[in-house]
Write a structure and sequence with these properties.
Order of helices and strands of chain B: HEEEHEEHEHHHEHEHEEHH
Distance between the termini of chain A: 63 Å
Structural class of chain B: alpha/beta
Radius of gyration of chain A: 27 Å
Shape of chain A: elongated
Structural class of chain A: alpha/beta
Number of helices of chain B: 10
Strand content of chain A: 5-15%
Number of helices of chain A: 18
Distance between the termini of chain B: 21 Å
Strand content of chain B: 15-25%
Radius of gyration of chain B: 18 Å
Shape of chain B: globular
Largest interface: A-B, 19 and 24 residues
Strand order of the largest sheet of chain A: 4-1-5-12-6
Oligomer: heterodimer
Largest sheet of chain B: 6 strands, mixed
Strand order of the largest sheet of chain B: 6-7-8-3-9-10
Largest sheet of chain A: 5 strands, mixed
Number of strands of chain B: 10
Number of strands of chain A: 12
Chain lengths: 485, 258
Amino acid sequence: MIVALAALVFGGASLSGATALATAPSAAAATPAGSGQTYTIATDTTFAPFEFRDSSGELTGIDIDIMESIAEDQGFEVEWQSLGFNAALQAVQSGQADGVIAGMGITDERREIFDFSEPYFTGTLTLAVNEGDEGEITGFESLEGKTLAVKTGSLSEEEAKANQEEFGFELLPLDQTTTMVESVKSGNADALMDDYPIIAYGVEQGSGLVTVGEQIPTGDYGFAVNKGDNAELLAMFDAGLAELQASGEYDEIVNRYLGGEGEDDGVDRSTFWGLLVTSFPALMSGLGNTLLVTAISFALAMVLGLLFGFMKIARNPVLRGIAVTFISIFRGTPILVWAFFFYFGLPQLIGTNVNIWVAGVLTLTLNGAAYIAEIVRGAVQSVDPGQMEASRSLGLGYGKSMQRVVLPQAFKMMTPSLINQLVIMLKDSSLLLAIGFAELLYQAQQIYAANFRVTEVLLIVAVIYFVAITLLTQLANYVDRKVNK
Amino acid sequence: MSTQAVESTGGTAPSRKVVVDVQDLTKSFGDHEVLKGITGQIHEGEVLCVIGPSGSGKSTFLRCLNRLEEPTGGTVRVGDFDLTDPKVDINKVRRHIGMVFQQFNLFPHMTVAENIMLAPTEVKNVSKAEARQTAERLLDRVGLKDKADARPASLSGGQKQRVAIARALAMSPQIMLFDEATSALDPEMVGEVLQVIRDLAVEGMTMVLVTHEMGFAREVADRVLFMDHGKIVEVGPPEQIFDNPQQPRLQEFLSKVL
């Protein structure tokens, strides 16, 4: 009995479906099935006003507020995974997340893969151009020979493709709204097409764009789960949504974001100082994660790197072969491939979720270990062979000679390279933003995704990286001088 | 010249213990045969100098005596150990054989005293305090008492080599091997190192020296061994080798170097 209870509590989402079926007849009336559970909900990173980070780095937006209000109403817990739109869909398909709410249009194509809730928002698409171009571009008909930025795999791409032949424009499919806005601002695209609420919110935040033409109705936004899974979660969402709409809380939420009432905490966000002050807490939490994931990965990579470095100079051909294979695999493949593999691919192979920290640390560790192994090998081999001969001649064994004579000198020689590798690893950790790891650059993306002030935010982030790396290098050099006198 | 040397030149010293016994030693690097069958013995207290042109195999011969080079064939016995027996604990054998290298090979990350204390503390489990005492005594003996806590990098070549000799002596070896111990030194520093070796000879240390210092070999050696092309060409007391060489190859060599 206790075991069964434990399985219920810890078994997670995949179990709860079966449980819900088994207990449904008796329990459904009193408490909804799945109540008390924690569900992992994936969402986009950059879809203001549906989801974005507020000034303190908290995830907020229409989708977030609706989901959390429903969760409260229905008595379940939500754990957010802020991933980017395509990654969020993948996360649900791979079982990393139980559901996705990301301003996601309900389409027949998606219905084949996902089960949708009742629509919770009716979306429209709009064209937008740089302020001043609104006289020249007024709709699809004035786009001939021009470039239109659209969001990859979204309704905007579908709609634009449907009109492309008739009006003769080029498509520039991009992953994120921010990138689309930047493309228009920099002149790489002449116009963009995206969801009206997002663009309207950006215009309000001073994005420098204006909306043009008629809004095109796109259909409805829905919350989705993997087809056939988490039926109880879907049911709770529909029930909760009906409650919100009936109580008027739904309108409250939507007006909070589209009614023209921004955050008001007395800080003037339009200045650089205001931006710095409001974004600092989120960026510092990102820096903390960056430093922590780098520190853990570097420590583990040192252990593995030493091991493989020694295996590579071993006399045993099997050990040497293993080391050579390991090093060539991880030096010969991009970090991003492994980040995606460990976070999205591995769960499908082993049938269980992989924590994002585990995936991030694995990625950085294995990549770093391959380089550190080469550093170790190089340093050990560059110690004068006469040192080993002198030590062996005195009667010290191979291991003792390595430990007392060769390695201390090798460490001294490899220290500058190791510091270099540490700095590279810290910078490489920013690649983990692709799987939604909340490190420094990811936090920056969250911030400029909401306020579209890309250049200023990136400048701040660059300075933070620079200061962090400079201090780290100084510290490492100090330790080097203390240890390797 | 010591009295021991005079006795040794007699060639028959049955009472003397054999320290090194080499039988038909061969060594090849790939297809290249460097040693083509070396046979001979070194007795307790004897100083043997090995001379010969470069590439003659004299350094390889010396390095086979503590198995820094693995012999290809033949046997090498040092003291009670057969070095060519695959089951021999080579680390145990090497405690009894001191080696001094052309390039000194001091450990640069340790002080002079730590260089000397490493083997006694690691291999013989001597206490640090005792090893330190031994180190200071040996440094005094090679004239470097005040350098105990210096780093090797701060020493001159001659001083480094004297530390290297002290380091080898710290294990109280039965025999000392010198591989061109003065070849890397500036001329004005050769004397101080040779003086230390000379003192060892007087004290009766068994030694094999590969050297280019003909004058020193004549002075300190009990026997001189001339090698060429991986073979012993001629061996005998220094008077014979330098004043009355028998083999044309040796005569030719001496005419070039003397």
